[in-house]
Amino acid sequence: MKHSSLFSRRDFIRQSAVAVAGLPLAAKPAGRVRAAERAPATDIGSRRELFVDDFLIEKLAGKAALRLHHPEPRDIALVHDAPWEGSGSGYHSVFQDGQLYRMYYKAWHLDVRPPGKVNTGSHPLFCCYAESDDGVRWRKPELGLHEFNGSKNNNIVMVPGPAGSAVADPGHPAVFKDENPDAPAEARYKAIIRSAKPHGLLAFKSPDGLRWTPMADGPVITKGAFDSQNLAFWDPVRREYRAYWRIFTAGVADGTTWKPAGVRAIRTATSKDFVNWGPHADLSYVDSPPEHLYTNQIKPYHRAPHIFIGFPTRYIERGWSDSMRALPELEHREWRAKASLRYGTAITEGLLMTSRDGVKFKRWNEAFLRPGIERPGTWHYGHQYIAWHLVETKSALEGAPNELSLYAGESYWTGTSSELRRYTLRLDGFVSVNAPMSGGEMVTKPLTFTGSKFTINFATSAAGDVRIEIQDASGAPLPGYALDDCPPIFGDAVDRAVTWKNGGDVGALAGKPVRLRFVLKDADLFALRFV
After folding, report:
1. Among candidate residues 185, 367, 223, the one with its CA nearest the CA of residue 293
2. Taking 60 as the threshold, does the pLDDT of residue 101 lie above it?
3. Are the CB atoms for 205 and 190 separated by under 8 Å?
């Protein structure tokens, strides 16, 4: 059978795999694989698989590479300008609850005055609540639950105070709806709150997301620093609760992974009941240098819940320089720096990291959410802390598919309020296998699947395209599914069914080890799925 390609068969076989984004791929021939080299097939069933790591990738050739994408800024979603909020508000938790979007956050004020005074005690730290019908326009309902300055006309849901034998600090909240089918009605919503005394993390429950009670007499996790947004959630794939929290650790390096030394880092544990937590493990990373990670923002991705996606905050202390002095709001920056150098000269931004076991992560070393164009309220410590977590929202473009909305803070420190800006990203649009017009190819590791239809999330230019070949485990094209049998696929869709000359039914191949070969020109491949 004739084998058509951007490369000759011989050239493609000779092509070494490239190391992409720090992920070294085995340099094996891209054509047939000798029997002794055949790896066992990975069963992906009907899962959606994203290219946020090299889990499925066997070979990249030509100019194909993994490409990190970035959220697009939209309007301000919420301004924290109420008297019980302020310029230090942050640590947002965002999730969709049926037709309603819910948000919880720290309400705090930082009063910065010359010549270098920072007052953090104008009011206690609260946990506040907002909601939305579309994830775009948010409102602060008057809940009537807690008093502030003689009135209960506010959106406060938690205040400092006793929680069993502990004292709760609601300024470090992480709130979620528990999708565990066995969770009782009175604990349908759960939260992790820092304990001011004794040191640790407290477990809270609620029947409605508004009225909260502790689940234990004291902290349920006690070993850690906790001076960040610490969180926990229900893992629907592994059917357990998982927590992530802030630590400082000495760590070790073994040449292939590292555990940070003397930096702000992350620890995890699992639980069956949200109260009793098992052995702890420190996160390790593939080919990433030790860096301060202020938050972690990890959660299963709702469209592929077997993949954990995190948006940690990278924290860098850069000190004074001409570039630092050229950044926005120099006078205010100087005031903060006189109180503490890092208040004025530290900078933060959002990163992307992913994992399939919850402990070892692929962290992209390039920024996922940069500080962006210089303007007031940006390029400072506290900027671009991404909310926990993303949600799916309607596109502003008529007839377009849904998109992902993320939220990140700005205008921290300054004025009387901080702000939360919404950003958008295409569904599954974190990372793609990308190739320019000159072309590239990707071949997967052997896999098995269930289903009869093959779909892809992809985008091309008007002149670009994608072609797909299904091979046997050794790399030989299967009859009817060779590259010559696949008409060029072009467009921009999140769920396009792939067809060959004889149609798109792949049911006869279900359960059999196959490889997928993609030939791309000016195209991005974000995800694939058999259904």
Report:
1. 367
2. yes
3. yes
Residue pair 427/404 in contact (Cβ under 8 Å)? The answer is yes
Check if the beta carbon of residue 94 is closer than 8 Å to that of residue 132.
Answer: no
Question: Domains of the chain (ranges plus CATH)?
Answer: 9-69+431-530 (2.60.120.260), 72-426 (2.115.10.20)
Q: Looking at the chain, how many residues does it have?
A: 531
Could you report the per-residue pLDDT of 135-152, keeping only the tens digit for each? Answer: 999 999 999 999 999 999
Q: For residue 307, how many C-alpha atoms fall within 13 Å in the half-sphere facing its CB?
A: 23
Residues 6 or more apart whose CB falls under 8 angstroms from that of 94 comprise 101, 102, 103, 387, 388, 389, 390, 391, 407
Burial 141-169 (b: 16+ CB within 10 A, else e): eebebbebeeeeebbbbbbeeebeebebb
Whether 527 and 455 have beta carbons less than 8 Å apart is answered as no
- When pLDDT is cut at 50, 70 and 90, the band that residue 20 belongs to is very low
The distance of Cα 136 from the centroid of its chain, to the nearest Å, equals 19
Question: Which amino acid is present at 508?
Answer: A
Confidence of residue 38 (pLDDT cuts 50, 70, 90): low
Contacts of 77 (CB under 8 A, 6+ apart): 136, 137, 138, 407, 420, 421, 422
Cα–Cα distance measured from residue 160 to residue 171, given in angstroms and rounded to the nearest whole number: 8
Beta strands in 250-298 (DSSP E): 257-258, 263-271, 281-282, 284-286, 292-293
Beta strand pairing call for 213-214 and 240-249: unpaired
Give 397's contacts (C-beta < 8 A, 6+ positions apart): none
Rg (CA), the chain: 25
Q: Alpha carbon of 467 to those of 4, 5, 97, 368: distances in Å?
A: 11, 9, 39, 29
How far is Cα of residue 234 from the mean position of the Cα atoms in its chain?
16
- The whole-chain average pLDDT of the chain stands at 91
pLDDT, tens digit (0-9, with 9 covering 90-100), for 259-313: 444 789 999 999 999 999 999 999 999 999 889 999 999 999 999 999 999 999 9
Q: In the chain, how long is the greatest CA-to-CA distance?
A: 82
Helix (H, G, I), strand (E, B) or coil at 242: strand
Burial class (CB in 10 A: 0-12, 13-18, 19+), 34: exposed
For 158-176, write each residue's pLDDT tens digit. 999 999 999 999 999 999 9
Alpha carbons 352 and 365: distance in angstroms, whole number: 8
Tokens of 184: 């009782």
